[in-house]
Amino acid sequence: MKTWVMLFRREFWENRALWIAPLASAGFLLAAMLAALLGSKHIQVHATSDIDMSVMHGAMGASAMGIAGLMLAVASLAIAAYLIDCLYAERRDRSILFWKSLPVSDAQTVLSKFIVAMVIVPLGVYVTAMCLHLLGTLLLLVFGPDLPLLHDGWSVPGWFELQLDILGRLVLALLWYAPLAAYLMLASVVARKVPMLTAVLPPLVIAVAERLVLGSSDVTRFLIGRVAAGPFDALPLASPGLWLGLVAAAGMLLLTIRLRRYRDDT
Amino acid sequence: MTTTNAQWDEGSPIYRQLRDRVVAMILEGVLKEGDPLPSVRQVAAEYRLNPLTVLKGYQQLVDESLVEKRRGLGMFVSPGASQALLKDERQRFLDIEWPRVQATIQRLGLSADELLKPDATTEPKT
Amino acid sequence: MTSIITATGLSKRYRGAQALQDATFSVAPGRIVGLIGRNGAGKTTALKAILGLTPYDGQLQVLGRDPATERDALMREVAFIADTAVLPKWLRVRQALDYVEGVHPAFERAKAEAFLQGTDIRPERRVRELSKGMVTQLHLALVLAIRARLLVLDEPTLGLDLLSRRKFYDTLLNDYMDEQRTILVTTHQVEEVEHILTDVLFIERGRIVLDAEVETLGSRFLLLQVKPEQLDAARALQPFHERSVFGRTVLFYENRTPEELAALGEVSTPGIADLFVARMQGAQA
Predict the structure, then answer these.
(1) Distance between the two ends of chain C, CA-based, in angstroms?
(2) C contact chains, 3+ CB pairs < 8 A
(3) CA dist B59 to A142, B16, C115, Å?
(4) What is the complex's ipTM, to 2 decimals?
(5) Does the global pTM surpass 0.80?
(6) Into how many domains does chain A fold?
(7) Does C212 touch chain A (CB under 8 A)?
């Protein structure tokens, strides 16, 4: 256990963007919220008896998703950049010979990076978004324009239900994107020069080849579909695509581990 | 490129002789307390010795508390080393050598005055 | 006593070149072994095989394990420095200590800190802020604080100034006293290590051309600074190498007695560096 914690810490030491990007986006959102709050003081709110409860709920839901969505979008860029470099950086600066001189298996190395990318950072971002939303809601309650409906519309169980819903969608999205993450890691262990190229080229070649040879773009559309699904799309858990994707992800991770075994600084 | 094996006795193990040399240097004051010993590498190089032999000799000195190892810095003469050695020498003299000399003095019938006079020429007592 | 490393018929081919060819050797416990060879002779390949970093043909046992299949277990008992320039530049000294402590069960942090005590290396500094010599000191401090039975060093002093190199080997030997590890060091700078080795392995073009204890070299090899008039007689005794220095000829013999050569000039034991050069050039001829 101690080893895993150290491996995770090491990833954050080396890749500061993983925690700086989420914090920066959180800071930006906080500033935006405060600005909006200050601005709203000047707005007079009239009789609110005709405002629908569902609108309040909707507003709360939308704001929560908005915050989480924005933060996750920023985080996914940082995560993608991290994944594509994570097994290449150690070869570029030759530090792989130091890491390999210690009793950490290739499996531990690969999996710790995958876990950082697909579990720790996303959950960390989620918790931060949740806190930010809570903070925003409280600020609105205390300092915002007096909306009695706000006091009524807001409830603790309702808030938790909302956050759980977001978490559920996030987990589904993580499962959906697992094969993409594994693919990026595979590219980073295989790449000899520019990992980005190594990752982008094969699907590009496939797309072009398919067009030229078969005249179709089904594969292309499939690949795009895998990448473009938003984190909050309602993906059914029973979708076969999800589970096949997980199998593919597992396969790619195993391959990555095998390939790292005999990698050195050459 | 000449071999320097000739410097070492065939009699006792080399590491022992190395230890004895360092002890002699401490007693003579050539090596004072806190002085660094030459590195194992230097001694092995200069005297063409197996480095493990040199290490063994140094270990002997550490075991006798005459020399201490400071990690990352080297080997240094321990404080109180020369006193300890002197004390040992004195004890050995008193316990072993002096009784022998004493016995000889008695056998020869020499008196204290005769012994302590710088250039005494003695006559056997008649 | 079981040997620490046993290699039988070790071979490795890279595309186009045979890096190791039927290399057979063994390393006994408690020895300080030098694997000496020119650049490209196969030293690094041999080390990589020993450390399980590359596949190989033939048989290899390290600390009773097969590096190809039991690498993870092996790494708990082997410490190595593959060139001093491999510590990641972004790592802070404190983080390096934390990391090794976190992943290595046999690491004694206090020992490493004691090593660093006598240096200018501050815990918050990053590797990129340290001089080459300091990086080496840090790496060595980390490695020596690991209770490993085998220590493998691949050209550990490459690129260092003379003082740093001396300090490296001094520290290594000083620490060796407590640990009694087996040390395997490769280098092409023979003069630097010749006085700290107990055994030598000469490697050339992937083959082991000499495997001997340093103490036996004196009885096996002799060097003769021949008197000019005795040159023909000396040559008749079949030296394996000959060299002229300032008009004086120096001849190298194997398995001759000092008595046979005494009349012909000054007889002595060649140093490892001389022997290496003579053997390499002799092999070419």
Answers:
(1) 39
(2) A, B
(3) 75, 10, 19
(4) 0.89
(5) yes
(6) 1
(7) no
